[in-house]
Please model this.
Amino acid sequence: MKTAYYKYFAALLLFGSNGVVASHIALPSYEIVLLRTLIGSLFLLAVFKFSGQQLTFYQNKRSGLFLCISAVAMGASWMLLYEAYQQVGVSIASLAYYCGPVIVMILAPLLFNEGLTWTKAAGFAAVLLGAFFVNWQALDDGKTVWGLFCGGMSAIMYAIMVIFNKKAKNISGAENSLVQLFGGFLVVATFIGFKQGFTLQLTTVNWLPVLLLGLLNTGVGCYLYFSSITVLPVQTVAICGYLEPLAAVFFSVLLLHESLQPLQILGAMLIISGAVFGECAGQSKAVQQKH
Model:
């Protein structure tokens, strides 16, 4: 369990830097996601084959179906998120995106029989208030409604991704990550094919950030992420996941010099403190009950 926590936190830090890396890629958001999922899938396929493993997800039709639904949701979520990056900036898009765990937390008692304690409920009330402050200030500052809509829809797709991946109990580790990421690539490729055909303008692209985003942030990051969330409780995944927007905001302010208004800073503090309180208080209570 401790190893799963370490892998999960490492994945969140990598994902938190996605917006910064993507800001150095002069391509439309959809094409960035296409390259990201393609390179990440090829990397995981090479690792999977090198380790001598065999694909087995199709043998369990129920778990395989859940994993495919999760993959479709992930592809859609990433396209919406990267569009939001370009419309409203990395920090605002990341905080809007991470309203997704709120949805997961609300549904967890119904779908996974995980009790919702008052500490977790209080923590998520703070998270919701923080998300409201962040998005209300963004609208007040003239941010596009389309950008905020994309951020909100990416949050819904995130929740679907986590819930159905968690239900694919018999598929874990590298296989889970490979199928998930390749499925996401197929979704993005299909969308782009219908939208514009496969005419990508890659001649002037800086390939260093593209490869960094695909190999490290996506290939390694997805392996760490999906091999850990199948082990961790779904509410822990939802709450601790707020380390990612915290990292995204920190990186965007530090490296991209994006600015946050006072109300947005307050919203970010509420989101992070609410998430930390909900998880840490719940863990402390669980330990006390054991003793």
User: Anything to note?
Assistant: DSSP finds 13 helices and no strands in the chain. The CA atoms of residues 98 and 155 lie 6 Å apart. The longest helix spans residues 262-290. The two ends are 19 Å apart (CA to CA).
